[in-house]
Write a structure and sequence with these properties.
single chain; about 300 residues; alpha+beta; Thrombin, subunit H; 3 domains; 7-stranded antiparallel beta sheet; 5-stranded antiparallel beta sheet; 5 helices; binds zinc ion
């Protein structure tokens, strides 16, 4: 645990003009918007028909919920068992082809939580991508390489404009970026970091509740398709279709997300809270959306007897 926190940097107090979060430093006041669109790598060969799985007897497609194959009458249980077996073999094959996933994965630690990030590349810049909720309200944030425990400096914080993702530009000679794909999630594998710091691919749905926030979901060609934003499969967020990445001041981001966290708790002075929420110039549409939701909750609470 001590290794993970090594090199942790504190975000300066709110009343200081200059601040650091990671190695990024910038005089207060300016907010730069970066509209870098992720380079998409479309991989057509895994865009198979959604949901349907092949029957082991007649090789035609059947629903995974079918009682029996509509073409040959093969029992549904046999179809599902054959499909699960084929899937785990495909995952093993992907692992064999690209065994060095440790160099693509990073531990992400803040005072709000722990998770992982995955290295991707866009326009010759390397990034670590993870879920924004690891950073929300956090005063410190540290990236540590999974392979050797080395602290990894980052130079900015860029929020996905419309979803719970963040990317951190990094400079590293020995991080291996994975390609981003907007392909089908069918047949996708997961990167799983075990407690002994080994990295492996696992089949979808296995141990999904135990996976850390930020876990990348891959297709069978080991392209990143989604990022786990919460510890459930519905929390997986598409990475390829982010409309823009907004570079933000860490301090401003912390203040705004701390306000959102505060607003979700019990509150003594809803009027003052509503004033702060409505007067905030939210950094992204995603944060605006959360603010609107929590404002609605507080108002409904006020209406109830
Ligand atoms: Zn059949």
């Amino acid at each position: 645990m001590g290794e993970i926190f090594r090199g942790s940097r504190q975000l300066a107090k709110e009343d200081e003009r200059d601040y650091t979060w990671g190695r990024w430093q910038q005089p207060g006041g300016t907010m730069r918007r970066a509209a870098a669109i992720l380079t998409l790598a479309i991989l057509g060969c895994f865009a198979q028909a959604a949901e349907l799985i092949p029957c082991p007897d007649c090789e035609q497609l059947a629903s995974p919920r079918a009682v029996m194959c509509p073409h040959c009458g093969c029992p549904g249980d046999a179809i599902r068992a054959a499909s699960a077996n084929a899937e785990s073999q495909a995952v093993m094959e992907a692992q064999r082809k690209a065994p060095d996933f440790g160099s693509s994965l990073v531990w992400v630690t803040s005072d709000r939580g722990e998770g992982v990030g995955v290295c991707i590349q866009s326009a010759s810049q390397l990034y670590v991508v993870t879920a924004q909720n690891l950073l929300a309200g956090a005063q410190s944030l540290t990236l540590v390489k999974v392979t050797n425990g080395e602290s990894l400096p980052y130079t900015a914080i860029e929020l996905a404009s419309d979803r719970d993702l963040v990317r951190l530009p990094v400079i590293s000679t020995n991080l291996l970026p994975l390609t981003v794909s907007s392909g089908s999630t069918a047949g996708m594998a997961l990167i799983h970091v075990a407690s002994n710091n080994t990295v492996a691919l696992v089949a979808p749905n296995s141990e999904i509740g135990k996976l850390p926030t930020g876990t990348p979901f891959l297709d069978l060609a080991t392209n990143v398709v989604q990022i786990l934003a919460a510890a459930n499969p519905n929390g997986a967020i598409d990475l390829a279709s982010v409309p823009s990445w907004v570079s933000v001041q860490p301090l401003t981001y912390r203040i705004q997300t701390a306000l959102l966290l505060e607003a979700r708790k019990d509150h003594n002075d809803p009027a003052a809270l509503l004033k702060r929420l409505t007067e905030t110039a939210w950094l992204t549409p995603f944060l605006t959306e959360q603010a609107v939701r929590v404002i609605g909750e507080i108002r409904r609470e006020g209406d109830s007897p």
